[in-house]
Amino acid sequence: MSSSIVVKGIQLSARCGVTERERQQPQPLLVDLIFRCPNQSAFQSDELSDTVDYGTITQRVQAIGEGQAFSLIETMAETICQALFHEFPITRLKIWVRKIRPPLNRIEGSVGVQLIRSRQPIASTDLQHLSPFLVDHLSRLPHGTVLDVATGRGRHALYLASKGFPVHGIDRDTDALHELLAQAQEAG
After folding, report:
1. 93, 138, 142, 169: least surrounded by Cβ within 10 Å?
2. From the candidate CATH numbers 3.30.1130.10, 3.40.50.300, 3.30.70.260, 2.130.10.10, the one assigned to the domain spanning 5-118
3. Does residue 177 contact residue 171 with C-beta atoms inside 8 Å?
4. Over pLDDT 90: what percentage of the chain?
């Protein structure tokens, strides 16, 4: 099951622009977000703790957008993306940041940037976070399905999957397992 959370029209009064004048005088911007997160259990539980609170995300976007001056909308959008990935269990994010009254002649609409980002999976070449025992003894592991007990965020499961092993994970943190499953599905 795949779902997205959509937040449209987050209003900012932001200092963003190439010229010093644009950065001194706040101007109206709008931000739209479409994101995925491990929220499958929320459909049955009806509990906010089983999903991502889009009210909190909206407040965070406003704090970033209004808290500092940016020369480029691109930089603002990327800063927001990185903060949301760092602070929330989002697996994929599409963001559209736009000036609704750009200081340009003959523009009736808005100007802005759209970014699409995915949480970066643990690279199979990033061995520093893997168990040295696993790396050293991988060649001795017979091919077949692997059971990863206490999977956590899946660094070992992702590594083993990248080596061609079908992996089943068990963990009491069901949100971590849902996030790992979404990550694996996006990676193919």
Report:
1. 142
2. 3.30.1130.10
3. yes
4. 39
